[in-house]
Structures are given as C-alpha cells and as structure tokens.
Amino acid sequence: MPDLQTILASMTLAEKAALCTGAGPWTTTALPRLGLPRLVVSDGPHGVRHPIDLNGMASESHPATCFPTASLLASTWDVDLIHTLGQALAEECIALGVDVLLGPGANLKRSPLGGRNFEYFSEDPYLAGEMAAAWIAGVQSRGVGASLKHFAANNQEFQRFSINVEVDERTLRELYLPAFETAVKKAQPWTVMCAYNQINGVYCAEHAGLLDEILKDEWGFEGLVVSDWGAVHDRVASLQAGLDLEMPGPQPRRVQAVIDAVQARTLDESVLDEAVRRILGVALKAAETPKGGAYDAEAHHELARQVAAEGMVLLKNDGVLPLRAPQRIAVIGLAAQEAYFQGGGSSHIHPTRVCVPYQELQARAPQAEWTYAPGYTAEQSFRPDLVAEAARAAAGAEVALLFAALPASKEAEGYDRPDLDLSGQLVDLIRAVAQAQPRTVVVLNNGAPIAMQAWIDAAAAVLEGWMMGQAGGAAVADLLFGRANPCGKLAETFPLKYADTPAYLNWPGEAGRVRYGEGLFAGYRYYDARQQAVQFPFGHGLSYTHFVYSHPAVSAAVFKDVDGLTVTVDVTNTGHLPGKEIVQLYVHDRQAGLARPPKELKAFAKVALAPGETRSVSLPLNFRAFAFYHPAYHRWITEPGEFDLLIGASAADIRCRLTVTLESTLCLPCILDETATLREWLADRHGQAVLAPLLDEIEARARQSFGVDARGGSSNGIGMEIMDMMQDMPLPSVLTFQQALLDAPVEDILADLLRQAHGQAA
Ligand code: BGC
Asked: Which regions of the chain are under pLDDT 70?
C-alpha cells in the first residue's frame, strides 16, 4: 500500500473533501484508485454492535458478547481487567470486520438522572480517566481503534442535540475534561468523538478552543476527531475548528460545500489537508490489522461473568450472605427469569447468549427446594395479586432472593430518568416480601443510582447488580452463594433522595441552556462540602471478609511538586475468605488561594489477599494530584503548603491520614493589573514585595501627620483596621484615599508598581 504522503499528494480536491465525510452510516469513503480501503466503525461501548446491513442506520446487528455496562466496569476499579476486556472487544471487532469501536464514554455523571449514565464510568474524573485509558489501551493493543466519546460536557439527554452548557473554565478543566485528558495522554485513542451539545455558546463540533487548542495542541492528540452522528451544523466551520471526519454519510452537499470553500479561498486547503492526513493515518493503521476469523465466544462469555462478579457491589449485608446451604429458597422478581442486563440506544448489543439468573441459582444448589414468583410485570403496573403471591412464596422459604430491576423503558439514550425511584409496584413488593421473610436479599439491576429510603431497612442484604451484561446471572449466583467474594465498590454516590443531588437546582436546564451552577462540587465533592448524609458514599462496597489498614507511610514529608510522592499502606485480610480490597487515596488541600473541594481522589489500587495475608499497597501521586486549575493563569498550579493524604476504604471511611508539605517549583507570571484589589496585591508574591515598602511609607507619614499609631484609629490615617476595610478595594482607589500622603499622582504610582511587579515576575 502506498504511504500516507504519497496518497495525500495524489488526491484531488474532490477526493479530499469526500474523505472527510462518511460514505455511509458506518463507513468512510474508500479510494480504490489509490488503494485506500474504507474504515468500518461500530458502536460501542460494552460490546460490538456491528450491523448486518452496513448501509442501514438501524439495522439488526450481528451477535456479540454483551459485557456489563460502564457503571459496573468502573465499580471494578480494576484497570488490568478493563484492559483485558478491551482486548476481547477488539478480537470481536477483528472477527466482524470492524476497524474502530465507538467507545468508551468518558463523560462525568453530573446528575444521577442522566439518561446515558449507564454508559459512563463515574462522578469522579480521575477514576473515569483511568478506566477510559485502560479500555482504550486494551482495544488498541490488538490493532483496533477506539473512539473516546462524547467530547465534551455531554452530561444529559434533555435537548442533547442543542443544549448550551454554561460552565466556567475551572470547572470544565477540573471536572469535565480530565477523564478525556488522561485517556488521550495515556492511551492515544485513534479517534475522539465530539459531542452534540454547545459549550458556552459554541457547538462542540465547531469549537476550535476545544478541538484544536486543547485536544490537539495542548494534549497532543494524534488521531482524528469524528463528529457524533449528526453533530455537525456547518461543515466548513467544523473543519476550521479541527473536526476531521463528519459522520454519518453520505452527504454530497457537505462535500460540495468544502470544495466550494476551498475554491472560493474561504477555507485554506492546508486545513483540509490536515484533516485528510489524520483520516489517512487512522485508515492506514487500521488496514494493518487483517480482519476476519473467529473469536472464542465461550471465553468471552466467561470474561463477561468474571467482570460482572468484580463490579457488582454488596451494599448492605446483615449476615444473611453468603448463603449457607439453605434448603428452601424463594426467588422473586421477573428479572430473575428475564435478565435485565443492558440499556437502550446505540449501545444495545445482540448478545451471543444470556444467563438466566434463576437457572444459575438453581444450578448452585440443586438439592434445595426452589420456588419462583414473578412479583411484577415488564411494565411494572400496579398488580397487588402478584405481590401477595410473592409474599406467600417468601414466607414458605428460609430465604428470599428478590430481583428488582428498573423497567427497561426507564434507562436509555435519548432521554433522562424522571426520578431516582423504583416503581411503586417494586417498593410494595420488597416491603411485603421482607415482612413475610426477614432473610430477604434484594438484587438490583439498574444502570445508575436509585433511592432506597422507602425500603432498604427492611432488606437483610442488598447486592447492586447493575446492568450486568449477558453473563451477569451467573455472577449474581456466584456472589450470593459465596463462590465469589464481592469486591466492587461504587464509582458514584447513592444519594438519599433526588433533592439532595448537586445539580438539583440546575437540572436539566431550560430555554436551551443548562448552567453548571454547582461548579466544582459534583458527586462526593458536593456531599462532603455540604456534610450531607447519603445512602451509600462514593467508593463504598462490602466483602465477605475484613480488611485492616496499617503502617501508612509516605516517601517524603516535604517534597517538590514536580517530584511527586509515593504513599504506602499495609492492608491485611483479617477474615476467613480470600478477598480483594480497593484502597483509595484522597488529597485534601489545607489552605488554597481558591476554593477547593474538601477532598479529591488521586490514586487507588485493588489488592487480592488470602486470609491472614498482608500486602503493602503503593499509591503514586504526581504534580496534578496537588494542583488546581487557576482561571486567571489559565493553567494548573500548585501552591506551597500542607496537604492531608487520606487513605480510605470509601470516601466516607478514611482509615489513615498523613500530612505532607509541598514546595511549589512554579514561577508564575504576575497577573496583577489596574483593577487588582489590595487583597490581590498582597496575595501575589511580587505584588506584595513591591507594594509593602510603599504601604510602610504611607503609614509612617500618616503617623507623623495625624498622630495615629501603627494599629490605626484615626479617621484620616491608614492604620491596620482601615487597611482591613480596604482589602477588597482596587488599589488605585486605596491610593486615592491617601493622595495627600503621596508624592506623585496615583496613576503614575500605580503604573510604576505594575511595572516593578511584572518585571520581578519575568
Ligand atoms: C450516539 C453515539 C453513537 C452514535 C452512532 C449517537 O447518537 O450519541 O454514542 O456512537 O450515535 O450510533
């Protein structure tokens, strides 16, 4: 095959323009004349949705392994496992002839009501970034491309094609961009998919600041930017902003618009060439991976089971679990017979097979007497007869296993959830069954948090089974019977009620706009800051064994930001079963120039321990673990000072604390200007240095002229108390009040001070 430069140099303007828009819903334009094959893309993200008819937008798809969705994947906190999952996804892509898999979704879960939350990893950008990077690295290690989506701030379905996200720069940088940043810097996805929405008045597809400046220039993204399907409004403007490939196609008018713009010289051909170069780069790389063959469907089903078992979260257990050879078991709930294992929309997979939870359970205790009652219908409409029947079944057993799933219609791409609640039918069912049978275990199937206050006290145990993928039924059975030990932990907070959630007052927006008014305080950052009780905190998850943390240590008590640190802690399994613990490290800045969340996750590790075993867990921290984004400097900065390192089993269960002192190596530019306040001058190292002598001089003169002492007191002087009152006054106004004590006009003095301060910083 010819090389990239040769192909590019031989292409006509029409061919270049055609390459930048899809040829069909799932393919790019091939150039047989130059030996360039088309690219084939498929959704994504938790399986391969490869359409039987490649020209059909809504075609049925080939069977593929349906892995658990991202909520469960993130709850594994296991980057190696997610990497392995990525490899399996790539093997299925290769067998099906797919070059690029459209995933993962790295958007933050801003509100638990977000309709696609099941496709996203976490409310925390660090965890989401690590998961996305591992997923991409796994897929791409087999020569298949990933498409990191939806870039950026695509956090709701309400008006998803047009909503204008109003978000401040710091919040964007600290919450909504870092998962993408990590994934790009660590794993270099072949493609990034830009989102439908607008950010601060500009569509993502036409956002040069986002695509060209941040993604490509600042983060060094080497691949191509593809539009979400139908996200482009103005093809020429989008090319100019850095959007390389528009999907889906064909769109002959868009192609013609690009040709016309180049000919009219309103679009520089070098811009088009750069897009073509990026698309060719991915197409040629994809062509290096021969497609076809088969994958081991059984092995992938087994992997799906393993992942499901690692990501389900034991939320509550009064001791009823694991089940110890009960003889009479009642299984209740339609979802035990008809597994609820994935969400609706573009990610919907045609599974190779599906484990039925009830059958899996029976297979693990064939000697027991089993009874089943559905408890509810698919629509979950009001049916008291089903509740009564289920309660009778539960009363006659030693234990009741109740499968409570959200109705499938409640969780899908395209619309948000209206509330956090289980249906009235399900709440009645859980209460009635738990009253009839105190040993009732509730197994939940849902893609995002639900409110539990109405029933959780009645349940003896609750297992969060998530959207568990096609093999989830087997994983549930393994966990309930103790053949696997639960080890997942929540990657998002479960609030007590919807009104408690961070975005509550600003969700989902109106009149075309949504204001991210909660700013930096999303997820546990908000609940921590408000000291607000939650149902289950971020990072929570129980095990059938116990872990004790000891000997916390840090590589240095005083350190330079550029050097970073390593934190170590011993973790001991003090129980009688092998198990895995997820150790979390949060950083708390004791004093900062700008408001910061009380703590932020900056490292984690998952460790497997035999009974009685102790291992030392190592948690590295780099510059970014201590930094915050300063909107006045437009960059990440560290400030010198003390930080607490909080080692915990969840965000609310901190086991060890260490304190370290950071020495910042940054030489920041001086950002003082004519409008800066006295407080800002004194907070700035250089400003303080040049202003202090002048303030001393003014005070000395005031004392001489008006007889005030250094503590202030005279109505005319500039004593300390008056200085306090003037802290938030612009410096020129402060000086104007003291004009009588100054030798030169305020404008001249200010200009001199600014020159000196900026000169010092340079
Ligand atoms: C979704 C994407 C998906 C694409 C192709 C869009 O509507 O937002 O996630 O990859 O369709 O199906």
From this structure: 708-722
